[in-house]
Design brief:
Elements lengths: L4 E7 L5 E2 L15 E7 L4 H11 L15 E2 L4 H7 L3 E2 L3 E6 L5 H14 L4 E5 L4 H11 L6 E5 L3 H11 L3 E5 L16 H18 L2 E7 L11 H5 L2 E6 L6 E9 L7 E7 L2 E4 L3 H6 L9 E8 L2 E13 L7 E4 L3 H14 L7 E7 L11 H13 L7 E3 L2 E2 L5 E2 L4 H10 L4 E5 H4 L10 E5 L2 H7 L2
Parallel strand pairs: 6-10, 6-11, 7-8, 7-9, 9-10, 15-19, 17-18, 19-22, 22-23
Antiparallel strand pairs: 1-2, 1-3, 4-5, 11-12, 12-13, 13-14, 15-16, 16-18, 20-21
Helix pairs in contact: 5-6, 9-10
Bound molecules: thymidine-5'-diphosphate and magnesium ion.
The site of thymidine-5'-diphosphate (TYD) has 14 residues, from helix 3 and helix 4.
């Protein structure tokens, strides 16, 4: 092996580095994920450190100006919200998601909006040919000539093109197809992806260009192989949703320029992605009337309340070991809540199968939907429908108590806006409102027993 080159083993799942092959990764406990890659260990570090030391200087915090970062709106409110108010100049944004979910479509729409504002945009595709992009673009709308396309995967070429053209925004679709000749391993491997990301980071910071990179996600829901990517970029957005459903959710996971936990909701139509401004209405469409085991709960996504339907089907089991499933929420949480009901209400759920589902394919893990899960299970078990104008939220603890949750007022207001007439909420939240809320009946409950009485 050439001098300075070393053979290193990387876990393709989490990026763990090891000098020898291992069967199981100590980092993520994945089996058989180590792959050998050749990395270039540059010698002569002390010389470069000496040079850097001459240039390095420290500054007091007070001397740093707090000028607001420059933001460009994408003309898509949902995307702007997730980005924290628009694209920050010189930022590196990773858009992750399953194949076919609509990442390329979303970014092409961003290109369209930006090019219509006469901003120069460069779309680099390593996956699709120019014709394929053209076909998609025709479905989306009309583009201005300030959008230029480049089909290329070689990082050195891309770097050169960007530094010559100096566009305002660059889209890289996808990071897994990019490769650098300096790295010995195949495109998509940990070292290649890491190298490519660091190159784009340098370009973004050095030339003050905003760069979006697309990253594919594995079955387990992590950006394929390189979790390392997440640490390197400024913002991580995940695009999720059921491929069989038309809506898509863009979720901010990390954001150096804004708050995370914000979501943007889109619907995939034949003209591309369309923004959904009122997701609650969308989530509740098709809710059954007068059916047992269905209840509407309210969850916060960032600063935004979202109403969703929780469904439960509880039926007698034919086996000693009852079957439970949870779709769209945490399986263990459902088991825990069923144990609480068994113990605190004396419900004989251990002899029942239970299937809990959040309708519409959305995923919610906020504890505030506990009360919704509990009421859906009770309703199904007793075969007693809950009034469809009733909504609930609250966290349920192990002793069956209903605990307070944050932002109760926003949740109640959202419910009222959508025409709900009755709200079952934690007793502690009921007294904490700043403004008096009229037009919706508030039922405070402090434990699951009272919640049961509230739906009788
Ligand atoms: P795409 O953006 O290619 O997904 P990704 O880049 O995440 O792999 O999305 C492709 C899917 O979106 C494909 O199944 C077709 C569908 N689609 C529409 O339904 N309407 C449209 O207008 C477009 C452009 C795509
Ligand atoms: Mg794509």
């Amino acid at each position: 092996m050439a001098k300075g080159k070393a053979s290193v083993y990387f876990c393709q799942n989490c990026g763990f580095e090891s000098s020898k092959w291992m069967g199981q990764c100590p980092g993520c406990k994945e089996w058989n994920s180590f792959v050998e890659e050749v990395v270039d260990r540059k010698g002569n570090v002390s010389a470069s450190v000496k040079k850097a030391l001459e240039e390095a200087k420290t500054v007091p915090l007070s001397a740093v100006s707090s000028a607001n970062e420059e933001r460009t709106s994408t003309d898509m409110k949902e995307l702007d919200r997730v980005l924290g108010g628009g694209i920050v100049k010189g930022s590196l944004v990773l858009v992750g998601g399953d194949p076919g979910i609509g990442k390329s479509t979303l970014l092409l729409q961003v290109c369209k909006n930006l090019s219509n504002k006469n901003l120069s945009v460069l779309y680099i595709s390593g996956e699709e040919s120019l014709q394929q992009i053209k076909i998609r673009a025709e479905r989306i709308g009309t583009f201005q000539d300030s959008l230029e396309l480049l089909c290329e995967t070689n990082l050195d070429v891309i770097k050169e093109v960007i530094s010559r053209k100096k566009p305002s925004v660059v889209i890289v679709d996808s990071i897994q197809t990019m490769f650098s000749d300096n790295v010995g391993s195949a495109p998509g491997s940990v070292s290649q992806v890491r190298e490519a990301t660091s190159v784009f980071m340098q370009i973004a910071k050095g030339l003050d260009i905003s760069i979006f990179i697309v990253g594919h996600v594995t079955k387990e829901g992590v950006v394929a192989g390189p979790r390392v990517l997440e640490h390197m970029v400024d913002t991580v957005l995940y695009f999720e949703g059921d491929r069989h459903e038309s809506y898509r959710i863009l979720r901010g996971v990390k954001n150096r320029f804004g708050s995370t936990n914000e979501i943007g909701v889109f619907e995939m139509r034949n003209i591309g992605l369309v923004e959904v401004e009122n997701p609650s209405e969308f989530m509740l469409s098709g809710k059954p009337v007068g059916a047992s085991g269905s209840v509407v709960a309210c969850s916060m996504e960032g600063t935004r309340p979202i109403l969703l339907e929780i469904q439960a089907l509880v039926c007698h089991t034919n086996f000693g070991n009852p079957r439970r499933t949870a779709t769209g929420t945490d399986y263990n949480r459902v088991n825990l809540l069923m144990a609480v009901l068994e113990k605190r209400l004396g419900m004989r759920l251990s002899e029942c199968d239970a299937y809990v589902n959040i309708a519409g394919g959305i995923r919610m893990n906020e504890p505030a939907i506990d009360l919704g899960i509990v009421l859906a299970i009770i309703s199904s078990k007793l075969d007693k429908p809950i009034n469809e104008k009733t909504i609930c939220f609250g966290e349920v603890g192990l002793s069956g108590e209903v605990r307070g949750v944050s932002m109760a007022e926003q949740r109640v207001l959202e419910a009222k806006k959508l025409g709900f007439e009755r709200c079952i909420l934690p007793q502690v939240c009921k007294t904490g409102f700043v403004h008096e809320i009229k037009g919706i009946e508030l039922v405070g409950v402090s434990n699951v027993k009272e919640a049961l009485d509230a739906i009788q």
